[in-house]
Every structure is written in C-alpha cells, then in structure tokens.
Amino acid sequence: MNSHAASESDDTPVLTRSWRPVDLGSVLDGSWEPPIPTVGQRTDGRGLFYLGKCHTVVSETEGGKTWFALAATKDEISSGNHVVYIDFEDDESTAVRRLLALGVDRDPMLKQLHYLRPTDQLGAGVHRDDLMMLLAIHTPTLVVLDGITEAMVLHGMNPLDNADVARFGRMLPRRIADRGPAVVSLDHVVKDKDGRGRYALGGVHKLNALDGVGFILENRQAFGIGLTGRSTVKISKDRPGQLRHHALPSSGGLHWYADLVLDSRSDHSATIAIEPPGDTQPRSDWRPTVLMQRISDLLQEKGPLAQRAILTAATGNRTKLKEALDFLIVDGFVADQTPHALIRPFAPAQESK
pTM of this prediction? Predict the structure, then answer.
C-alpha cells in the first residue's frame, strides 16, 4: 500500500469490543425491526436514507447530485432537524444560495445547518475533536460529504485504490454514521456509461462497503436558469432492502426509484421535487399516500388526536404531514374538528374514490 501523510490512527475506529458475541435475542424473539429510511423524502413520503448508515449519490458533472442532497437537507431542516454539510469541492455560497432559492428560511438555516469547508486532514487531534463535538452537540439526522475524490486526495489517499477507499471509509463516513446520522457521500462517475456499471469513479470498494443505499443519477433534461431539469434516480445497492420494492426495474440491474425535478425560475427562486418513478398524474389527483396511511394508522391505534399530537407522533416532514392531514379531511377520512377523529380507515386504493 502507498505511504500516506495521514497517520495510522486517523482511520482507527473507536474501540467497541467488536469481537465479543452479538446478542441474537431480539432477532430470535421477533422484536427486531428492520431499519426504515426516514431521512429525506420523495413527494409521496417514501424516505431516501437510513439513519446510522452510509450512502452514496453519484452522477456525471451537472447530473444533480448536489441538488439531490440539498433537497434532503431542506426536508430535514423543515422537520426541525440539524444537518452537517462537509464540502471538499466548493464554498458556502453555493449551498446557502441554493437553499435560499428553494425557500429555506434564513433563521432555521443559521441554527440547523452546519457547513464545514476542510482544507486540512482530519487527523487524530483537534480537527477530529471539533467534528465529534459538533455531532454530539447537535445530533444531526443527515451529514453530507460533498466531493469524496477530493476528500481522499486531501488525506493523501488514492481513490483508485480499494485499500485506500476502505481506509477512508473507516476514517470519515463510518465514524460519523456510528454517531447516528445518515451519511451521504457525493461522488463522480466515469464518463463511459457502458463501462462504469454501478460504480463511482475509483475503487469498487466505494459501493461494496455501503450499508445503506447507493443512488446513481442520470440526467435526462439539463438543469439551468429558466429551465426545468430532470434526472433519473436509480438504486445501485440497497443493503437494508426497504427501498427497492418501491422502485421500478431498470436496465443494468438497477432500479428506478425517483425523478429529481428542478424548476429554476431565476437565481433566487427554484422548486425541487423528488417524484416517484413514472409519476405523471396531474397535480389535482396527487396525494401523499404514504403519509396519509401513516396518519390513518396512528388515529386508528390511538383514537382522536390534536394536530400537534399527530405531527409529533407521525414520522415525516411536518409541512407534508399537515398537507396529508388536510387531504384526509377533504377526502372524508378524518373529521375536521379537533381532536381529529378517524371517520374511516384510509387505504391507497381508495384515494380516487
């Protein structure tokens, strides 16, 4: 292996006594539950990323991977959660100006978005302490690592070397994910579509080491001011297995999970949506069925609840939960008086009746 400027302690995981037997009780007694993707959302309420897992989003230049990460960032900030954005490629103006254009308010951004622009190696000293303290104080649900190739070069590692890819994964993404957030690494793909398969630029280990989801974005309509751009979002890997069955089969062993749609009206105004695959329904017929089902199940279990209790107990973006509750009321599933009572259980097949 190549020699590196980074010390061997840089990628040493925190001691967890991992060679002791794992308690199998919860799996055997049926109390174990599989992880559910709750970070970021499609427009139907389906999640994008798993808490405590490592994910990748890869595309060619201008494929939309940063916009995709910022859409998830917007969702998490809107839900009252904190986001850490570690940028190895750009500066704060790009991320902040884009979020402002998407309608994220300044005050929550100041409080909940923590932007880092490292120019030094993480190391085992003050820089690592700063990062770990940030994670401990704010307990973010999402950490974005923008520019993995540049990050590896900064740390004296070769992105084409699988051993270096593994070392980097232990040093940064895995170390962060072990603290609880979903970690999303943004990376490039090679230009050759036929030759790249499911992989990012560099070592195969970038995909093999994932314990979350690997997404590939393929641009179909260019992004730009005054344009409505669109990229297909495909799953290359889903280790927990909770997303692929909500996707459509695609070529190359991939699954079409969503479309990233960005309508850029000007430098200061844009709308973004992560739509389900093949979602061509008119807006008037659209319903956030996943969130409507979630609220219906909650009311069926708990009985009548005030709106605040519903928004607290049901997982999801608060704004979108409010919209789902409104649809349930309008469509006759939930009473409009507070506390809201369930009139009849909601089922997706009933939405157009």
Answer: 0.75
